[in-house]
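Before relying on records like the one below, remember that each one covers exactly one chain. Contacts with other chains, cofactors or solvent are not represented anywhere in the record.
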Amino acid sequence: MYKKILEGKKAVFFDLDGTLVDTEPMWVAAFEKVLLYVAPGTALEEVYERSGEGMIEKWSRVLALGTMKGQHKAEELVDQTHNEFLKILEAYDLDPMEGFWDLAFELRVEKNIKLALTTNTEEAVGKKILEKLNMSDFFDFVIFGNQVKKKKPAPEIYLTAAKELGVAPQEVLVFEDSIYGAQAAHNANMSLIVIWDGDTAKSNFPEETFLFMENFIGLAGNLDHAPEDIFRAIEKRTEKKA
């Protein structure tokens, strides 16, 4: 029998890209545009492959291939990718993953739980995404990747957020989508729910993961039930839609 998801919890932390909002297509498009300019002979699939991995690691991999035109530094290429992403972002309307607002209302208003955004994304980009989502002042605490010494999978970002909100790691539930992010939550000794892409093997995530979900639908109204009860509720909703 699983423990109740919110048993003993005082805070819930959300990752941004891939968890709170699906920005991955925009990141891929931005990266590919820069890649086509600096290394037109390099296939995207060769270098854009790891869930939750930072842009600096991706561009370092491209540099290691030796296929670039001219001299480039990984940091400069990251900045170019961010600029391209922001151009793409400007042309799009963004909405959070389905079910988020219902969940957030229940957590904050009905259960008086603190909410934080904990993302590896750089502040300049992350703030623009939050603006698009109308969430600039929504969270009790926000921390970006450039504000810590070690990004995920290191636990620093989560431990820092917990300290700022005055909660113990064991009192935190984390929503993550990537292997790196999930490992960071696990390393911080926090409970975990994965917003799952349906492709990454579940065995790559911590064994203690509570749930794997497509989005946030089905959580609101079921947070006082055990995970298996939530699965049943979600299955019933799916059956009704079918």
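The chain has two domains: 11-22+95-241, 24-90.
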